[in-house]
Amino acid sequence: MSTTPLLERDTAHDLRELGQQLRVDSVRCSAAAKSGHPTSSMSAADLMAVLLARHLRYDFDDPAAPGNDHLIFSKGHASPLYYSMLLAAGAVTEEEFGTYRQEGSRLEGHPTPVLPWVDVATGSLGQGIAVGTGIALAGKELERAPYRVWVLCGDSELAEGSVWEAAEHAGHSRLDNLTVIVDVNRLGQRGPTRHQWNLDAYARRFGAFGWHVTEVDGHDVEAIDSAYAEASEHTGQPTVIIARTRKGRGVAAVEDKEGAHGKPLPDTEEAIAELGGRRSARVSVSPPASAPARPARPDAGHPPAGLWRPPGYRTGQSVATRTAFGEALAALGAARPETVVLDGEVGDSTRAQYFADAHPDRYFECYIAEQQMIATAVGMQARGWLPYAATFAAFLTRAYDFIRMAAVSRASIRLAGSHAGVAIGRDGPSQMALEDLAMLRAVHGSTVLYPCDANQAAWLTGAMADIAGVSYLRTSRGETPVIYEPGERFEIGGSRVLRSGPADQVTIVAAGVTVPEALAAADLLAADEVSVRVIDAYSVKPVDAVTLREAAEDTGRVLTVEDHWPEGGLGDAVLAALADPGRQGGPLAAGPLPAVRKLAVTAMPGSASPDEQLKLAGIDAESIAAAAADLVAGHPGVRP
Amino acid sequence: MSTTPLLERDTAHDLRELGQQLRVDSVRCSAAAKSGHPTSSMSAADLMAVLLARHLRYDFDDPAAPGNDHLIFSKGHASPLYYSMLLAAGAVTEEEFGTYRQEGSRLEGHPTPVLPWVDVATGSLGQGIAVGTGIALAGKELERAPYRVWVLCGDSELAEGSVWEAAEHAGHSRLDNLTVIVDVNRLGQRGPTRHQWNLDAYARRFGAFGWHVTEVDGHDVEAIDSAYAEASEHTGQPTVIIARTRKGRGVAAVEDKEGAHGKPLPDTEEAIAELGGRRSARVSVSPPASAPARPARPDAGHPPAGLWRPPGYRTGQSVATRTAFGEALAALGAARPETVVLDGEVGDSTRAQYFADAHPDRYFECYIAEQQMIATAVGMQARGWLPYAATFAAFLTRAYDFIRMAAVSRASIRLAGSHAGVAIGRDGPSQMALEDLAMLRAVHGSTVLYPCDANQAAWLTGAMADIAGVSYLRTSRGETPVIYEPGERFEIGGSRVLRSGPADQVTIVAAGVTVPEALAAADLLAADEVSVRVIDAYSVKPVDAVTLREAAEDTGRVLTVEDHWPEGGLGDAVLAALADPGRQGGPLAAGPLPAVRKLAVTAMPGSASPDEQLKLAGIDAESIAAAAADLVAGHPGVRP
User: Fold this and answer.
1) φ and ψ at residue B258, rounded to 5 degrees
2) Among this protein's residues, is A370 annotated catalytic?
């Protein structure tokens, strides 16, 4: 396979042959797996053949090389095509290629970073282009590196709003290191797409968002080659290449036919024969021309996080945890130059603004586009940066699919959600996160933190830098009393026992805004000679099962209290820990569980002051005290 | 206030005066509440004055009148302006107006349907335009009614991808009954918007998506009036009016100033004086000219759902629950003509296609735009239709913010998610919903159903028609054995005890695909002389606390098993029910809890066959049997 820069007659022939090889291999692996998307692969085979042989700059022996281009299959279901490219590049063997979609194989149904050449998992459409925009942004604005980002999109996925968030961000940021290739094969899963082969419809849309647009015949290798060359040379705008293709191209039984999506071809041998038989060309993919100006992993050789000092707050003060988050983030940015911060146009509220003021070059305004914000974080961490992304906690729900997929991508991203719960007061339910703990707990490998005071929030903000996977910090709008000493350390998975005595009759487990309420409730109960233990469960996931279990055994009764719906939050985390300590590493408990009662927000809130809201929701000090007294009276516990 | 159709000199003066009145009232109510968004209201005051006085067709005395126009504040934070309009229209009194943002007030921080004139809650940006598109679609394609939909958007929110999903759907559907007014006041919350006063940037984008575009000076009442008239007359396209405005217009201290977002004006009295003082004009808003061709509530007078007959499946067959869902939906569509079905371009997989085949006029292809799909459902139910929306369960995560807001909107929508869990097999984790139960349980007032066989799925599909709020049916890709009789009734909040005996040592609680595994586990255990109870907890929320409690008391040990992450799903629902039966209406339990162990998916899956996946996740029959035996051996229970 020639890799000469100029396209000669023989080269065009070779490229067409490579395209057929990728088709045959896509057909082969899907047939062996008895599943997969060969027809969606065949439409884009010529597009990828030309890219692989002539334009991609990538060292397949060193996927971590900082100068490598990035190739993202936003249409992740075309994984047969991607794996066929890996086979052609010599990155995987024929033997491994044969394991497609089998148990234990790295060649999963949709690409994931289990393969070292894959930056991010795709398969939820409209995400690859968004993550690619994040990587291109890192290359352009953080690293000033010459690598290019290539994204293969399907036409169906252009219906996703996230595509247009990406188009807006990339267009406005003039990301000329980004090329998006749209495989317009006219057919979605169920039938024809909205615009079918109306390439101009897509061209108008991308053009309006500030992109350089080229339309090509996606089966004309010379036209494709020219389009890529033009894209690489074009400056000041990202390029989209809108390619007219035919789904199932090359096999009459499926070509441009409805009902052939997502299944092996009806006759494998006949199809391979029709495509001209098996080939086994090896492509010498060009390595990157030069290393980038900055290392791809900006944390390499950097002093450890222990040198970071969080801002300190005097006990007795009242400070909002969001304020501590912002100040800690600004300090972290000074100590760790790989820190980058993204915000959804509410940095003045989340306090991410403090980082922007201190480190404007590493602050990215994502405007009100939460999906693109998360995608940018995922893309930047793929380049070795340390991203924090902040918005109102309620609006992280907008990006749940991106957060879910970040976990599939094995991405390490840090999220901060401010203005959680009814405690925000008058703005009403649209602005109140009441499901964020449930949403973030149900992310694989996630860490969920909910600090109650400024020193704790500051410490945890820094600690998140070293957490792998998706981590989440829930912050509060209003001021809360500082109860911990400046610089106090808080373990992930830990807790604080704030009140404890030998005669405790009930344990109150709280977090965030309910901690001061629980302490006040303890005072009220003490006046009635009811002794309570109070635990600050700032680490909601992993939760401190050992301390909770001990408290439950000591007191026999547990009351949880949270500013969240009853489902999936702190109460459920406590119940799960008490029910099954075996899961936490210890032996399965032999004794029965204690009585547990959950206090949470059960009615749809309206507008009211923060204090009124807590009272209406039954999670203020008086309500907690009443529920605790009720629990003591109604349940024998261990000290009847 | 004149409501003559032609704009005369005096009328223009009156309109300007009305605009000033709306500004003064916005300032007043925000000052009284000591919070709110007066400056975001002031920019749009002239736009809304002209709409209210001259173009809106609405009977404020009869908000349910089917011919009424619909007015949606997509920029819900401009609620002071909306409430000032209600005051001017005589819909609310000055006394109620003074309760803005106070405890118990209907005038919440962002509008909600607590007010009868509000169709849907807004406040999460980028949603009002999407719901408005759904209402316009109902007007155009279902009702053929003459009402118009007016949506007020901010400029900041145009960064949301959901706006472009709506623009695509409305443009392609040629919704000429929809007018979107964009209040381009240049300033977002944190600072300038991406495009500031570049009206052409917005015009190009909407134009590319097929909209009729008009640019106006948003403070020129005559130009606004002409633009509305043009929008109402224009056919074949939706219209967007892009209005250049000044945030805080009319008060020098805040006009076009940064840092004045979302707070009362610095000097209320001075501001009111600068605006020309208080006014108290009453606007006679024109009622709709005529009733629509069809009733707004198509279910009015319709026979009750009891007449519907679900499709039946013979026991012993194997049928996928998604297939039963699709067939039941088609049958329901015949019995209840108000049923409408939406799908995200995967109707062949979800089986919503069966409805499309039977009732093509009431099937809406939403393409791969899940946010718009949910918004359309919310919009159509606001018009009295009975919407079901289906896609892969995993991709409902894309629309979580819309689902959350549907609950704030008190909307009744029915969601169906197919291809749940690792049981889908080879496609890999991007396609597997493993957080959907947690996500949907944590929606206020939601119902979560997870059938294990076809007859149960069919019955529950029909039962959802009569559920208020957000309901969710989780269906499975693969076939499962039919174990219930055709036509068997399943209560919401119920369960089925499938195995039971006087000597049961452990209760296995399963749902969906784990039910057949649990039954097989029971057979394995019986061979070892361990007697187990098996419960099919098809109603995950509300869960059948009474039956679960009874089983727990009888057997002393409970094992839950689910195809879902451990957090927030069936296991947590069971734990919550056992821990706190008092919540379910009964008295608080006096005794301790049983031992509970949860089986769920704990490691990130890859590709494998469905059977391999269940085994790898430890939720197949053998794993269940082993865990049950372990629980019996390790815990004394009630029968040691």
Assistant:
1) -70, 155
2) yes
